[in-house]
Amino acid sequence: MEKIDAILGDGEVTDFASSTGNSSGSSKTFTSTSAGTSVGETSSSECTTSGGETSATSTGSESSTGPSEPVCGDGVVEGDETCDDGNATPDDGCQECARDSIIFITSEVYQGFALGGLDGADLRCQSLAAKAGLERFLTFKAWLSTPSISVGDRLLHSRGRYVLVNGLVVAQNWDALTSGTIETTITVDEHSQTQDTRAWTGTLASGEPALGSEFCEDWDDDSGLLKFGGTGLSVNTDAAWSFFEHGPCFSELRLYCVEQ
Questions:
Q1: What are residue 254's DSSP bridge partners?
Q2: What is the distance between the alpha carbons of residues 201 and 103, in angstroms, rounded to a whole number?
Q3: In angstroms, rounded to a whole number, what is the distance separating the alpha carbons of residues 38 and 96?
Q4: Cβ atoms 93, 83 nearer than 8 A
Q5: What number of CA atoms fall less than 13 Å from residue 5's CA on the CB side?
Q6: What pLDDT, on the 0 to 100 scale, is given for residue 10?
Q7: Cβ distance 241 to 233 under 8 Å?
Q8: How far apart are CA 81 and CA 71, in angstroms?
Q9: What digits encode the pLDDT tens for the residues 103-156?
Q10: SS3 letters for 142-187?
Q11: How far is it, in rounded angstroms, from Cα 117 to Cα 107?
């Protein structure tokens, strides 16, 4: 009896055969495992009967899945989507679940050395957008680079279209905007007025810094008064829209502003 108690204490009972007068000689085996379970695990048991009678297995295993990914086209804005209108129409303001982004040239002009750096240039774009009543005016940023911080790093690479205030399409998405050719000149300001002039950019059409000038001392230093910064031509649709030549930092030029 002591041995039986010891076996039962270990949680295992094996090879219990009973004689019932049945000549088939069938025997039953029962195995139980219950010890050592931890968080995230479940106990399992298995019961078999020899002689081909029955077999039952219970595992209690659990499966879990992570959060579902956003589904573009289901009409629900989630994840990194900025819109989801439930259709694939590209010219309705929502393309691949990314809304159109407005791009404009500023109505005001600024000296390159007195922009207040990248942050100051962004604030100028946001201020003009707010005064013009544009939605999401706080998201606007200047198309402006320094030697160490490029437009490509600063701005959102949208899957949606880039459009002027009047609705004309400049580029179908970020890749098209930085391809070296755009569809429409960026000559429309935040009030939808035409400005055929140059803009401070310090940036190649690819979104990379236009190396070779002083960037007006990062657009924020009186010492840059007699230095140079990269400029673009708003009347061009080739790569010169972003970078045409270096201009003296005392010049009064405009900025390109892009909604994020």
A1: 199
A2: 14
A3: 45
A4: yes
A5: 2
A6: 52
A7: yes
A8: 9
A9: 999 999 999 999 999 999 999 999 999 999 999 999 999 999 999 999 999 999
A10: ECCCCCCCCHHHHCCCCCCCEECCCCCEEECCHHHHCCCCCCCCCC
A11: 19
C-beta separation of 110 from 253 below 8 A: yes
Question: HEC states along the chain?
Answer: CHHHHHHHHCCCCCCECCCCCCCCCCCEEEEEECCCCCCCCCCEEEEEECCCCCEEEECCCCCCCCCCCCCCCCCCCCCCCCCCCCCCCCCCCEECCEECEEEEECCCCEECCECCHHHHHHHHHHHHHHHCCCCCHHHCEECCCCCCCCHHHHCCCCCCCEECCCCCEEECCHHHHCCCCCCCCCCECCCCCECCCEEECCECCCCCECCCCCHHHHHECHHHCCCEEEEEECCCCCHHHCCCEEEECCCEEEEEEECC
Q: How many residues are recorded in the chain?
A: 260
CA 158 from chain centre, in angstroms, equals 9
Distance CA(204)–CA(201), nearest Å, equals: 8
Tell me: pLDDT of 213 over 70. Answer: yes
Q: Give the model confidence (pLDDT) of 37-62 as tens digits.
A: 333 333 344 434 344 444 444 444 44
Distance CA 199, CA 254 (A): 4
List the one residue out of 138, 247, 153 whose CA is nearest residue 202: 247
Q: Encoding tokens for residue 158?
A: 């949208």
| Contact criterion met (CB below 8 Å) for 214 and 228 | yes
- Phi, psi dihedral angles at 131 (to 5 degrees): -65, -30
